[in-house]
Structures
1.
Amino acid sequence: DGGITQSPKYLFRKEGQNVTLSCEQNLNHDAMYWYRQDPGQGLRLIYYSQIVNDFQKGDIAEGYSVSREKKESFPLTVTSAQKNPTAFYLCASSLAGGGSNEQFFGPGTRLTVL
Amino acid sequence: RKEVEQDPGPFNVPEGATVAFNCTYSNSASQSFFWYRQDCRKEPKLLMSVYSSGNEDGRFTAQLNRASQYISLLIRDSKLSDSATYLCVVRPSGGYNKLIFGAGTRLAVHP
């Protein structure tokens, strides 16, 4: 079955700790994206990658970092510099970064900072 | 002003009802438009794209008014399974496949 997986589903972190969220896809998509969703707000773009070994900041990249060493993987690190990290994190992928290709979402990781 | 605005609801309707959601967007150069559906604590999934001529998919009808920068979604004969949050999504022109999401309109269909 093709799709996007994210792990873990729930994550608890103490303040001051970095944490890495996993995102893997086997759809052979070039482009991948990270969003965060807060209650009452739309999804906001953190980082995106149009191709392996390349990524760009989205609208709210401060306090986050990513890597894209493999086509199928796009992990997101939430650093201690992120002031309000508690949120629902969604990874997505699409056929290509340009054009209007449907973005497919993973099931999400719910991060809570204690 | 938010780039994509929606009435948050909730819309509480009985089964069989017809319900309409509206959405406005601020960037007149926006290129593509979509409705996504998001179930509680799940990921969004594409419901349908929205075309200038209007389009229909079963009980769902989407309309776009570029002059007014307005998008709508009509659901006829509501089912219990339609209960979800509906996200209005806009793709600005140019560049990469960036999507701008509205905060969503919550629909609750009751027996």
2.
Amino acid sequence: EVQLVESGGGLVKPGGSLRLSCAVSGLTFNRAWMYWVRQAPGKGLEWVGRIRSNFDGGATDYGEPGKGRFTISRSDSEDMLYLQMSGLKTEDTAVYYCTTGQDWRALYFDFWGQGTLVTVSS
Amino acid sequence: EIVMTQSPPTLSVSPGERATLSCRASQSVSNNLAWYQRKPGRAPRLLIYGTSTRATDVPARFSGSGSATEFTLIISSLQSEDFAVYYCQQYINWPLTFGGGTKVEIK
């Protein structure tokens, strides 16, 4: 069974930083392209970014909201995905999900974590 | 960026009735279109990929169709567990983009 478990969310002040983690099991993590997606209160789903497998070069791509502020990384030795967020804004308040698909080079998503809530407020 | 527009924003349907949800892309996505179901407090669930292929364990009452810029998700006979928000997503281009969602509510 594939499991994705996010952690690290919480309350942070505007301008602050936070690191989210996602523990992955049940799939060949080192070949999987991994993604972060978020959903702000009352809003729709929004891409945060993705990281390709190291086999495919390990490149990262970011959605517009996180460009220059967010960094996605991975540890294949620990089957962990990370999202380092800095310069947080109130509009970054959202539930953050890690996600991937059955295909290694996933572009649509079968597997999701339960999400971790990030609240940016003074 | 490809903009995905879903309509209607809210659809009121009685249990047992048919629901038709639309998704329009600002440019052709060929058949690179997925649908997700989202219930409060739960992660999104993949329903359809490749426009019309049901994901694992998705009931046959869910069907997808369309091509290029116009897509449809049909729920043939709504069950109580189907009342949720539905999102389409294109995956032909980065950034991958979602539609704004259609909420299917009980009439």
3.
Amino acid sequence: QKEVEQNSGPLSVPEGAIASLNCTYSDRVSQSFFWYRQYSGKSPELIMSIYSNGDKEDGRFTAQLNKASQYVSLLIRDSQPSDSATYLCALNNNDMRFGAGTRLTVKP
Amino acid sequence: KAGVTQTPRYLIKTRGQQVTLSCSPISGHRSVSWYQQTPGQGLQFLFEYFSETQRNKGNFPGRFSGRQFSNSRSEMNVSTLELGDSALYLCASSPGRLDNSPLHFGNGTRLTVT
């Protein structure tokens, strides 16, 4: 089992819809979780950090963490075509480990 | 504040050659990590340096090496290049040890081995 698992997608949603991205992890020790967005040909950029169970909201983005079930998710409300990118889930386990990423397409 | 700077942006090398990539972290950041990104493997951790010491190393052959200088700038070297080394090499910095700090990435160096 990979340390960080994500559905590779592609995930396609219409403009204005909610996009839901999920990530599961295998290491119960991990305490820090991150979501990065990567546009094609660009480097990853940090969207959200989450460290404790529950929800964390930042604008149109909400990260959810459930350590007991070992999953972390990212919700994007009112999706825009500019949100089309690959979203990487990452966790800190002595070093930062990344999932393979989920490719999101938001259709106008 | 200036971001993470990687040079060069693009490199074309032939098999058997060696290459050195450079990374300047965000001012004040002391931890520098290197990643290899390929379409098939995603982001793979190479190594992390903190205060000129390699703290962690990923599962890459010894042809991949790195170092960090007293000003936190880092270099990575790949010797005896193979076709499979073609990838985007990303450097990322954080303030200290990777406890809770997120990584901030540079724009990457695109290496093509022919």
4.
Amino acid sequence: DVQLVQSGADVKKPGESLKISCKGSGYSFTKYWIAWVRQMPGKGLEWMGIIYPGDSDTRYSPSFQGQVTISADKSISTAYLQWSSLKASDTAMYYCARPRSNWHDAFDLWGLGTMVTVSS
Amino acid sequence: DIVLTQFPGTLSLSPGERATLSCRASQSVGSTFLAWYQQKPGQAPRLLIYGASSRATGIPDRFSGSGSATDFTLTISRLEPEDFAVYYCQQYDTSPWTFGHGTKVEIK
């Protein structure tokens, strides 16, 4: 099956670091971009950025540039989203998603999401 | 950033009725670069329409998309019980990609 499998929910304190993952399977991981999308509780969808695992070319939304780091390890078909110092406002569901073809495309494959809770 | 405004915010309809959802962009979006997604509670979004009017794989033909430039529409010809959900439009023409705030289609 073609799928994106995300890491499990996590609870952290403000100031802590975190790295969540998204593993692709059933397709050639290095040939498709992977994006990260945030959904805060009860809110809409926000595109954070995107990476091409083949060469780690990465693009960020200005709203998230400098706030998170997107990376990928093509040897294990896994993309990552990480924070060095979490804030309470980072509490959200985070989805990874794959565009249909190139990065200028709609997302036809989504992970189930990783819920990140940041609370003291 | 391109702002996508979806209206109405909530649509209250009965099964079997027609749903018309609108998405207006703050600047012109190439029609190749407009998508619609469905999201149900506790689930990830699902792609319905890409390129403004092309149905994604496995999407029933009661879903259709139309529009160009700054005005786009998602139409559900006859609502089925499983269609009650939140719908988002998204532009992927100009970075950063942006989503509308969603239209909730609820049972009347």
